[in-house]
Specification:
The chain has about 450 residues and is of the alpha/beta class. It has helices at about 5-10, 25-30, 50-65, 90-105, 115-130, 165, 170-180, 195-205, 255-270, 275-285, 300-305, 325-340, 360-365, 385-390, 405-415, 430-440; strands at about 40-45, 70, 85, 90, 130-135, 155, 185-190, 210-215, 220, 230-235, 240-245, 295-300, 315-320, 345-350, 370-375, 400, 420-425. The protein has 16 helices and 17 strands.
């Protein structure tokens, strides 16, 4: 198969189909010689912040001279974004060749989209030979397709309610699924500070004889006077401190994810992966994680490819793209907007999946918007603009527009915005991905 044929095949696997369980992955990997056994991993689970931790670790370790593979999901515009070694994404030719191999090995057997991409990633990393692979779970942990590895370090980021239909409807149940990545004797770095979640993580670590290092307990990330922060280790880290640290993104919780990355890095030291304080400092200040609290400014004519739109000329537009799609993520977006950004008007382009907490997320973001433009992301689970509108608070009084196509919603926001206004695009990574392509182009080259 060529690349286009592979993409068509993946689409047939029903991108949004979720099937938790490890049997299919184990069976396939046995048939191809267990490629994961030749690799070293950091395994990352959690509700929010997984990709940010991977991005920070990758940036620091790359600057320290290591060849680091990264597997994350979902992607914004191209499935190839999920597979990276250093700054290099998997090529179309590599992707097509390995996908063809997977199909031949499977024969008549079927696996899900996520199982397919996970298998492909493991095959690519095994043949490319990176020093370390940062492996992000797709959903949960215990039954996630990535949970067939024994890592050097396990990381669990913040835990909140999401995907209740699959992970359970209590914090204890969700935390139990995330804690499923904990392996016998493998160190765990945890950012799960909610009491119910922390209790579950602690119990499983004791059962698995896994040493636990928790945010707010064994290490912390207090602010400094100038807007920077410092990483502070307790007795388990011999009182180590890294000061004068700078976050590359405005998110209020970004430093917590960076703090998890630093703690994980320090535990990787016993496995031969080290970085000095300057490398850590420079790495954290340079982290890029597209579509997540991503701020930029652009002249309107540049992003459209036309010299003029509706007489606006080269008007400067300010954008904040954030794939916040669950309540915890949207709460962070709302708080970050209030404390880190200034603007005359907030113009919000919002889309969401129908199975998300639309009541809760809209209650957080809608009151901040002077203009709310609702639209429908791509995907079979996506809510229509009118469906989203029906979840708005009854007393909501700001201007609301329901626009079917994302492209048209973006154009409306651009035409309405003044140079002191801020356009926020969020509610769904699928929407953010589609809008980011229109604004900045694809992340990966053809």
């Amino acid at each position: 198969m060529n690349y286009s044929e592979v993409i068509a095949h993946l689409d047939q696997l029903q991108m949004h189909k979720i099937k938790l369980g490890l049997d299919a992955m184990r069976s396939f990997l046995e048939k191809v010689g267990r490629p994961e056994n030749s690799l070293k991993f950091v395994h990352v689970a959690g509700t929010n912040g997984k990709g940010s931790v991977c991005a920070a670790l990758s940036e620091i370790l790359g600057r320290a001279g290591y060849n680091v593979g990264v597997y994350t999901s979902p992607h914004l515009s191209s499935v190839r974004e999920r597979f990276r070694i250093g700054d290099r994404y998997i090529t179309e030719e590599e992707f097509a060749r390995l996908a063809t191999k997977i199909c031949r090995v499977l024969g008549r057997d079927q696996i899900t989209y996520f199982e397919f991409t996970t298998a492909l990633g493991l095959l690519w990393f095994a043949e490319s030979g990176p020093d370390l692979v940062l492996l992000e779970t797709g959903l949960g942990g215990r039954l996630d397709a990535t949970n067939i590895v024994t890592p050097l370090v396990s990381v669990i980021t913040s835990i909140s309610m999401d995907h209740e239909a699959y992970l359970g409807d209590t914090m204890t149940a969700v935390a139990g699924e995330k804690a499923g990545i904990i392996k016998e004797g493998v160190v765990v770095i945890s950012g799960a500070t909610a009491p119910e979640a922390a209790a579950v993580i602690g119990r499983v670590c004791r059962e698995k004889n896994a040493e636990l290092f928790s945010l707010r307990m064994e290490f912390d990330c207090p602010d400094e006077d100038d807007g920077r922060w410092r990483w502070v280790g307790g007795d388990s880290f011999d009182g180590l401190i890294f000061s004068d640290l700078e976050c590359a993104h405005p998110s209020l919780v970004h430093k917590e994810n960076d703090a998890l990355a630093v703690a994980a890095l320090l535990q990787l030291g016993s496995h031969g992966f080290t970085a000095d304080s300057d490398t850590i400092r420079q790495g954290l200040a340079s982290v890029k994680w597209p579509g997540r609290m991503e701020y930029f400014e652009q002249p309107l004519q540049q992003q459209t490819g036309r010299e003029n739109i509706a007489g606006t000329g080269a008007k400067l537009c300010r954008y904040l793209l954030d794939g916040a799609h669950n309540l915890e993520g949207v709460v962070n977006l709302a708080k970050t907007l209030e404390s880190r950004f200034s603007y005359e008007r907030l113009i919000c382009v919002w889309g969401a999946m129908i199975d998300k907490d639309l009541t809760g997320t809209l209650a957080m973001i809608a009151p901040l918007a002077d203009v709310l433009i609702l639209t429908q992301p791509d995907g079979e689970r996506s809510a229509t603009a009118d469906q989203i509108c029906s979840f708005l608070p009854e007393n909501y009084s700001s201007t609301v527009h329901c626009v079917a196509r994302g492209r048209d919603a973006l154009a409306l926001a651009q035409n309405m915005a003044g140079e002191k206004d801020l356009i926020v695009i969020g509610g769904s990574l699928y929407l953010v991905g589609a809008m980011r392509v229109l604004l900045l182009g694809d992340l990966v080259d053809a």
